Amino acid sequence: MELLMMAALVLAIPLIMSCLVKLVDQWKNQSSCYILHYECFKPSDDRKFDTEIADKYIMRNKNLGIHELKFLLRSIVNCGIGEETYIPEKVIMGGEESLCLLDATSELDEFFYDTLDKLFHKTGVSPSEIDILVVNVSMFTTEPSLAARIINRYKMREDIKVFNLSGMGCSASLISIDIVQNVFKSYKKAFAVVVASESIGPNWYSGNDKSMMLVNCLFRCGGCSILLTNNPTLRHRAMFRLKCLVRTHLGASDEAHECAVQKEDEQGLLGFHLSRNLPTAATRALSENLRELAPKILPLKELLRYIIVSWLIRQPSPPLPDSSKSTGGGGNNRTGPTVRFKTGVDHFCLHTGGKAVINGVGKSLELTEYDLEPARMTLHRFGNTSASSPWYVLGYMEAKRRLKKGDKVLMITFGAGFKCNSCLWEVMRDLKDENVWRDYIDRYPPKDLVNPFMVKFSWVMDENPENFSRD
What we know:
Blueprint: H1 2-29, E1 34-40, H2 51-60, H3 66-79, H4 89-92, H5 101-123, E2 132-137, H6 146-154, E3 161-165, H7 172-184, E4 191-197, H8 210-218, E5 223-229, E6 240-249, H9 254-257, E7 260-264, E8 270-274, H10 278-297, H11 300-314, H12 322-326, E9 347-350, H13 355-364, H14 369-382, H15 389-399, E10 408-415, E11 419-427, H16 452-456, H17 458-462
Helix pairs in contact: 1-11, 3-8, 13-14, 14-15
């Protein structure tokens, strides 16, 4: 026993010293970063992609044969999405093959001005008070930039610090938060706005490449604007305080880099390709990210437990009795230890990249259905809104009145590149705003998640390819 304790102490000393150094460094060099308010976008109801609209879209897409239709139906049914999500107005009207620059900018302007108007109105902060603006829209860029459109609309100051991000994928909002946190180190009592969305219209895929059709099944219109500050005198008004943020990028790996790529198919149609290597890249990115994150957010007791269990497992096992050998039970069946993230986290805000993504992260972190419910319900109601997705998940928790003062919320996002970014938020006060979920929160979680697309298009699964006709 003494030998065990000595070994644990020897292993723990470097870890304790590392944690102390990081804490001192954070105390000396990091500014506080608070979220005062965030506003998610809900398009008008005439933009919902229900089964009736889906039927019209499928029937007019001449590139889809019966085999592609079957794949499309299976994907929609299995991804966990409902029929109240939103798509661009031009697609609903049948103009997905003739989208122009004006359509793309109009789609984003609608989101920009709705969320920012509400953000400034509810907080009482004027656009002229904003010191830092970060805008991220991955798959669309203009000249002047999208950030410049916002500055022009709200007549912001000439000395505002502006960052316009593109190509960062679904994890871009945490990259934006990281930028704000670092700029805050040079400015006292500053205000920052982060704007996160995606351009769905120009990237709506009309071809028949199965690796690119998946995006139409998952990605939907949405966005979020977030107001942050490092002014300590405003902490009593804050909703969240950033505890730590970790970014992981696997771009040096060709396999990871190419698993999620915007490109043209063989017919020259633009879309977003998702390869079979995506789950592998996501698993590796998550593992690398959590390895760095764990010492920053977990209690020392849990870290010591993990070290001791790891040390014990590495010790040689005693020989098995002959009876075990006779029944085929030879070998060491012990598995590696797991880090219990729930010892330092109260709520999990997961990226809504699809049912498989949510299940995979849940399994890795040993989460319960209660923990996964916010992500599942957000995917069902709003779909994958790219970089803004985790804020809809956070909104669900708030609307359900789960977030209490002092709670810790772990936010995990994935993005092309391939990236995994995570951060830990501390809840600064009891939260109960129904926000973007206001009209729907009482219906979630629904008692029945029967997929309406399977009911509507069940004929596809029985259709004989030789007899298939659109007439």
